[in-house]
Amino acid sequence: DMSRLGADDVLSPRTPGSDAPTPLLRLRKIRSFDNLERPDHMSVLREFYRIMEETRKLGQTGVREEELQFYSEELGGTLHFIRFETRRMEGAMDFVAANSLHMNITHIPCTGGGAYKYANIVKDRLGIDLDKHDEMECLVRGMQFVLDNVKDEVYTYKPSPKEAEEAEVETMRRKDKEFTLKTQLSSRTVKRSFPYMVVSIGTGVSMIKVDGPGKFERVSGSSIGGGTYWGLCRLFTSCRTFKEVLDLAEGGDTSRIDMLVGDIYGGDYASLGLPSNAVASSFGKLVMKPRAKDGVRESDFARALLMMITNNIGQVAYLNAIQHNVKHIYFIGSFMRHNDISATRLAYAIDFWSKGTMEALFLEHEGFFGALGAFLGSSYSITKRGGGGSPSPAHRNRKRAMSYEPETKSKGSHPPPRRTTSEVYSGGRNPRKVVENGDGGGGGEGSDDDGSGDDIPKTPRRTKSAQNIL
């Protein structure tokens, strides 16, 4: 959809009165957009748009998150989002090749481990080079762009009226529970609320402190993340996709597996303020059974494991927030997609541990920020808004003048090769009750396709002049 603007067009400013904050910089398209007017490019674009408009499930490997697509005034086009499980990469390439979506594309900006792992096979199958971008830099750039440009992007969970009433009369530590009322936060409420912590939960966990526009540092992480959960669920349940196991966990009962305070003391541990239903040991109840699996359903296992990993991530995030004096914690990543159980638990836990001084925040486009950041970094140059159109200075380290600012060439250096991009992004909305709150506090699923693709012919090499953007 971005083809409607020429390469030299300055992208339009935000509509007056819009709820989204005005970015400090504006974006200018790079030269590769010049190729979009060529007939061969336009035919590929038309087929691409047809697929985006008519299909939700792409082949047997990908799902288009149609509820997440949005028109960006800043970019002058519509962004579409597709997710597929990494282990289904070959099936995704089959779909691209079968629909000729790779035609006239020689380079795609990518980030993450897959940019390295699959570089050779993408080159062999599709004739496309993967241009590798720093993962953390892309994540922060993409996230900050969405915070600046998408209304109603940020949400959290608050106690429902009933939950709030119960909390007022509880005399000991509140029960092991969640906040369940999804509350959308105004963009004005959370815009540029530096510093903040980003907890990116994918296969593992990375924790990034963002001090300001383009100023960020990875401060901690954990090997216990989404990969841990999905790997163990594949081992001990019959689920074949990540979404299946999350749906399964919705009906689980952790009390069948977790040892509670009441299992040890026969009731509350009043002197420490622990109610009888507080978890004393995750999976501890299985130790006391003659046969560990007796009375345990797959759904119980899926939920107990999810709660254990979620609580661990939340605790580590909270301790890092204390250490780095951060009040707003964003939980993002593929693990959080459609994962209401973890989100509601994290919202409650951060509020409880911090005694209300910190807040867990979530984003609708979680899981897509790295891909979006790579796209922005390769496809646009940055100019200061109202600054005469001169490019912003290059900052080759991570502390950029704008968190979604791409690398620019240093004075006297040769210009970097123009990069191009196709669109296989990864990340729906949580189906919880939503309320509007303009004054609130600030702040991968896969499929069953084997995707061997052995019958896909190799694509002839194309020249640089054939570069294109989808």
If you had to describe this structure to a student in words, what would you say it looks like?
It is a single chain. The protein has 470 residues and is α+β, with helices and mostly antiparallel strands. It contains 13 helices and 19 strands. The strands form six sheets. It has an eight-stranded mixed sheet, with helices on both faces. The protein has a three-stranded antiparallel sheet with strand order 2-3-6, with no helix packed on it. A two-stranded antiparallel ribbon has the order 1-18. Helix 12 links the parallel strand 16 and strand 17. It is globular, with a radius of gyration of 24 Å.
List keywords for this structure.
470 residues, alpha+beta, eight-stranded mixed beta sheet, three-stranded antiparallel beta sheet, 13 helices, 30% helix
